[in-house]
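To whoever is on call:

I kicked off a structure prediction for a single chain this morning and the downstream step that reads the tokens threw a length-mismatch warning. I double-checked the sequence; it's 168 residues and nothing unusual in it as far as I can see. Pasting both halves so you can look.
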Amino acid sequence: MTETAQAPVFAIQRVYLKDLSVELPHAPQIFLETQQPSVEIQMDVGSEQVADGIFEATVTITITTKVDEKVAFLIEAKQGGIFEIRNVPEEQMPLLVNVVCPNIVYPYLRSNVADTVQRTGFPPIHLAEINFEGLYQQRLQQLQAEQGESAAGRTGSAGGNGSGGSTH
């Protein structure tokens, strides 16, 4: 094989809004409230291989704002990206799909969320930058701790083998 056939490939094929949901369950009365709403934000990162050398990376965010115990608005958004990744050492793949790809997708999600919140009639919410590498390292440590606990205890904890969603 030639050297160019083995050259690593990392290319963005497409970035798209995969899912968007907005709820204002207490409108219009909620607009008459005068106190500041509380804001809770949950975020998750996902990835999957969709074809040979083609991967989808997603960043999902859920924003719940409440005035007292009443939900002012709830927004769930999932931004996706399709990436071509070939000839990359296997040990580098988790870092690419869990850190590099979300770093590319997230600014689009931030923009879509800011636009959506503005359209609800509430003051805009601008999501902070996220350190996806730190989040990834934190998940690895959490997974290792859970595996250590289950190996040490084996007392039938109901731990799953899911994607390890995080709420930050």
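Update from on-call: the warning came from a stale cache, not from the record. Cleared it. Sanity check on the structure: The chain has three helices and four strands.
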